[in-house]
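Lab manual, section 2.4: Encoding a predicted structure.

Procedure: take the sequence of the chain (414 residues), apply the prediction step described in section 2.3, and record the output as structure tokens. A sample record is shown.
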Amino acid sequence: MKHEFRLVDVGEGLTEAEIVSWLVHVGDHVVEDQAVVEIETDKAVVEMPAPVTGTVVALGGDVGSVISVGELLLVVDDGRDEGGDGDGDQPTAEIAAIDRAASPVPTPLPAARTSGGHRPLATPATRALARRLGVDLQTVSGSGPGGRIVDADVTAAGSTGTVVEPSTPERRHGERGPVTAGSRIALRGVRKRTAETMTAAWQSVPHVDSFHEIDVTALFELRQQFKPIAERRGVPVTLTAFFVKATALALVEHPMLNASIDVAAGEIVLHPHRHVGVAVDTADGLVLPVVRDADEKPLLDIAGELARLGESAKQRRLSPAELAGGTFTVSNHGVFGGWFGTSLVHRSEVGIAGFGPARRRPEFDAADQIVARRILVMNLAADHRVVDGRDIINFGLAIRRHLEAPLGLLFDGE
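Recorded output:
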């Protein structure tokens, strides 16, 4: 009996996905829940499992093909009689349609195979790690369930010298490569989603902006003192962790900024939790993983979560749940060297805070003496339908207060 495996919605609002790589070939035997294909949505790279145990009869597209939700992705024959007229070896109408649309059956990108004829089992993240370390997965024995190769296996292989030099330079999936005049770049994945959401934000949200200068001299000194403690726990403490914590605490004081507008109902919805989305730059564009209940979490927990989410974002391993539910956004554009900047408010939120770099400059102290201080510029953008200038300015002052007296950020949430 042949089983059709159609693309399902693996993430909020998914309408289509791109086939990144096939993990099986036509004729391969697969077991139920075995990963058979990697697809790229506008948010992440996701492995899709086989629906049943059996033999792969047909693949629904070439590597690089974009398919819509509901379209046929894979056909597996479980070897049992279908019953009725005809034998179970005849292709169904759906399979025939694939054959007519792409004859012969689409051939997947050549994949590394073990001596047993199957591609080594590993997640996209583990494969990415192997590429970075130059480890040949065909030579690695997997210690995970079902012989799956896990990160520890790859790291161990890399430390013992089981590496290969790639014959050609490899670039990460999603990187555009050289951009030349007159070239055309497909608008897909994260970039397509960004284009759609930013256009909607620009057209539908009346923005109001506010700029604040913040003296983060004490914050830098505290971070230096705090780093050894964090390093002993294996957690990198970035400035972004402080920004997220300070913003979340300010949202508690100013709940109108932790809201959204329901235009159809004519209501402003005040959210009970402070779920802060953090802009992460990846090869595919910006993504926004969410730190949940950021006001209640200790700073060290926020730092660890940011490190994990950032690495997952760069490898496209973020789950839909890790990208959903944000109530406010923080962007640290200072890492790129800019000074001033403005941001666009997402339609599902009321505001976004953008932080520039902390630069040393001369300032007058209380005794009118010139001293060196670290100053950064923060931009706040907000939905003017929900808040006014006074609201956003007071919210910015609350963030500044927390960052200029940063000791409290270490203990709030403990």
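Check your result against the sample. Residues 207-411 form a domain with the Chloramphenicol Acetyltransferase fold (CATH 3.30.559.10).
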